[in-house]
Amino acid sequence: MASDVAHAHDVHAHEEHHEHHDTFITKYIFSTDHKMIAKQFLITGILWAFVGGLLSILFRLKLGFPDMDYSWLKPLLGKWVAIQDNGTGQLDPEFYLAMVTMHGTIMVFFVLTAGLSGTFSNFLIPLQIGARDMASGFMNMLSYWFFFASSMIMLASFFLDGGPAAGGWVVYPPLSALPQALKGSGSGMTYWLVAMTLFIVSSLLGGINYITTVINLRTKGMTFSRLPLTIWAFFITAVIGLLSFPVLFSAALLLVFDRSLGTSFYLSDIFIGGQALDHTGGSAILFQHLFWFLGHPEVYIVLLPALGITSEIIATNARKPIFGYKAMIGSILGIAILSFIVWAHHMFVTGMDPFLGSIFMFLTLIIAVPSAVKAFNYITTLWRGNIRYTPAMLFSIGLVSLFISGGVTGIILGNNALDIYLHDTYYVVAHFHLVMGSASFFGMVAGIYHWFPKMFGRMMDEKLGYIHFWMTFMGVYLVFFPMHFIGIAGFPRRYYEFSAYAAFRDEVYLNLNSFISIAAAVTFGAQLIFGFNFFYSIFRGRKATQNPWNSTALEWTAPINAGHGNWEGQIPFVYRWTYDYSKPNCEKDGFTDFIPQNVPYSMTPHSNLPHENEMIALEKEEMLPHDKTLDTLSVLAKK
């Protein structure tokens, strides 16, 4: 491994002073610079987040106010708002299902996978490991444009005559396999499958690039034991995606065969209008197995990057080393491995053998162990820290809160006996929106606030950031906490309305649904504040300094507006781990409360720990003679 790193260093040295002279098209559109591609993923993801959020508000209004007049939306939604005999407008029931489907698809894949992992893996991997770019800039560019093409096809499906896909974001057959099942099972479903195929290609291209880059292009001294936890999270996430996305691709391919070629992989003994279809011998349960083999790791594909981001931000703003660095890596690995052997806990009600269900229940509940390790280490890192409550830090602490809250409710769903009662109720919706959706979203937003200065050379407005945080934090709990009670009461998800059921016409539940819808609208309004702050600050924000958060990580040693290649001249070497905050006696070495990764132990004799002093001889022999950045290091470190 050491030779690999050395080779990477040689490549970097060979590339010193290499400059790219880009045109507007190659710099901003078909760019191979990982930083620009990260921004493309980010801005596309943000735009999709507003689309997905708006869809959720529309169907929440229907749930909270069943008799509401939607005629004011007719100019936007056209035929999907039907004018009743009394002159009021009502949402088309099948379009309601399409909105629910597209909200889930957009938020899970386009926002929390591409927008989160695509953005920060691209932006941070080369900068934090000391590389000039990804292993393959061309593949990286293709990754974004496959995602963009996928986005456009999914967007186009909204304008189809039958509307977009309407079989739920899990696209279970037979709704997804029979074009005649729903309006959204026709062309909309075909568009969904094509879009997701391109999305999977995008994810695989990105994942291969991330893994290759982390293994081969680390700067000299950046061993795996010195990698920031962000990189560990991105690396393991890429491995999970590489192993699981092809299974979803296979599932989608068989679904296409059933839809178009008359095969029966997922279909058997189907009657429509009293007529038996020709499909025999297939099983819809097969699709569920294939889908959830991706679907459950997907939970961690969106969550692990957010947890990695949170680790970095909490340590930086608590001014303390991350507690239990190795335990955090172990917990990432543990969660990743377990994520592949628990998929059937989504299928307890499919007629699964109770003994098999007990095994999956046991494996599912074990995930609580590495998850608890992460939560414990976040809290102990915060304990007695000199905490700076930046917007990024608040969102990171908010993530920890949501991770714990959603995790606790997950223990109940992991129990196969309890899950049978709660399956497909709003309890499930509340759980995964807390632990997967909201927690990952908080991690994504925290990352944007924290690395915005490195991305755009400017600062976001802090006051707007505080308003954004408190409205979002309170809003998320006001939406999803009462939703648990509605779920326990038995309210099924994806239903257009509940007024036909006497049990659900209780005024308490009607008021709770109205309250949730209002809270959701207010929370969505808070995101408009964020959107304004983000786009305004890109052009008019206060100019950032090189290291505004006094962070130890390597990316802050790069110039404020770094060009393609990240560093001018030699890439800094790495001599220590990422979390040297508030080391005793560091002021005697000329540092404040942080020592960057590129500072040799020989420059910090007063603050070194005993085993660190033992490293001095090695670095003098192998690294210092070749490090050309040391002349300016002391000045840089004190900034």
List the helices and strands and how they pair.
Layout: H1 2-14, H2 24-29, H3 34-64, H4 74-77, E1 81-83, E2 89-91, H5 93-129, H6 137-156, H7 187-216, H8 229-260, E3 271-272, E4 275-276, H9 284-318, H10 325-338, H11 354-366, H12 368-382, H13 391-414, H14 416-422, H15 426-456, H16 462-488, H17 507-540, H18 610-613, H19 616-622, H20 633-638
Antiparallel strand pairs: 1-2, 3-4
Helix pairs in contact: 3-5, 3-6, 3-17, 5-6, 5-7, 5-8, 5-9, 5-15, 6-7, 7-8, 8-9, 8-10, 9-12, 9-13, 9-15, 10-12, 12-13, 13-15, 13-16, 15-16, 16-17
Describe the protein's architecture and organization.
Strand 3 and strand 4 form a beta hairpin. The two termini are 33 Å apart. The chain is built from 20 helices and four strands. By secondary structure, the chain is mainly alpha-helical.
* Number of strand segments: 4
Described by its quaternary structure, the protein is single chain
Secondary-structure element series: HHHHEEHHHHEEHHHHHHHHHHHH
As a percent range, the share of helical residues equals 55-70%
Structural class: mainly alpha
Q: What strand order characterises the main sheet? A: 1-2
Q: Based on Cα principal axes, name the global outline.
A: globular
**Radius of gyration (Å):** 26 Å
Beta-strand residue percentage = under 5%
Which residues sit in consecutive blocks of at least 5 with pLDDT less than 50? 1-18
Mean pLDDT: 91
Distance between the termini: 33 Å
Largest sheet: 2 strands, antiparallel
Give the helix tally: 20
